[in-house]
Amino acid sequence: MARILIIYHSQTGKTRKMAETVYEGAKSIEGVEVILKKAADATLEDLLNSDGLAVGTPEIFGYMSGMVKDFFDRTYYGAQEKVFRKPFVVFISAGNDGTGALRAIERIALGYKFKTVFQPVIAKGAITEEILRQCHELGATIAGGCQMGIY
Questions:
Q1: Per-residue pLDDT tens for 1-17?
Q2: Helix (H) or strand (E) segment spanning residue 17
Q3: What is the reported pLDDT for 18?
Q4: What gap in Å lies between CA 118 and CA 142, rounded to an integer?
């Protein structure tokens, strides 16, 4: 059974809605356990015990949220050499274009040596039905790939 960890931070509820939709997408794959946690509550053990990771953040001042950065700060040293090529995806609720937040997360992912397995979902402004469809697909893709052992 594959285990997918979804961590997120949300201040306005937009990123939470995206995270819940990623969760639903991942849960749509039979035989997959999905764990949805706020970034502040997620632990190193959660990361180490997962087969894939989805990270959601609002764009704040052109960067990821402090709580998502805190998750990375708290888990980095304990995860070194233990998460090599762990499947990884990103979703962002952006007030601008989301590129600054995405760039920062991608640089951190390089340090962990995560493997990006699907294009990021970036909502620019409102959370539309199309964005939610993409979030569902993002969750189903990482869960399905982990469940089938292709990542």
A1: 999 999 999 999 999 99
A2: helix 14-27
A3: 98
A4: 8
- Rg of the chain taking only CA atoms, in angstroms: 14
Instruction: Give the contacts of 150 (CB within 8 A, at least 6 positions apart).
Output: none
How far CA 46 is from CA of 39, 71, 79, 142, 145, in Å, comes to 11, 11, 11, 16, 19
Instruction: Give the CA distances from residue 63 to residues 45, 49, 97, in Å, rounded to whole numbers and listed in that order.
Output: 26, 27, 11
Give this prediction's pTM: 0.97
Residue 141 corresponds to which amino acid?
Answer: T
| Pair type for strands 115-116 and 121-124 | unpaired
Q: Two tokens at 138?
A: 């993002």
H or E element, residue 48: helix 44-48
**What is the chain's length?**
151
**Which of 4, 5, 22, 6 is closest to 127 using CA atoms?**
22
Q: Residues near 45 by Cβ (< 8 Å), separated by ≥ 6?
A: none
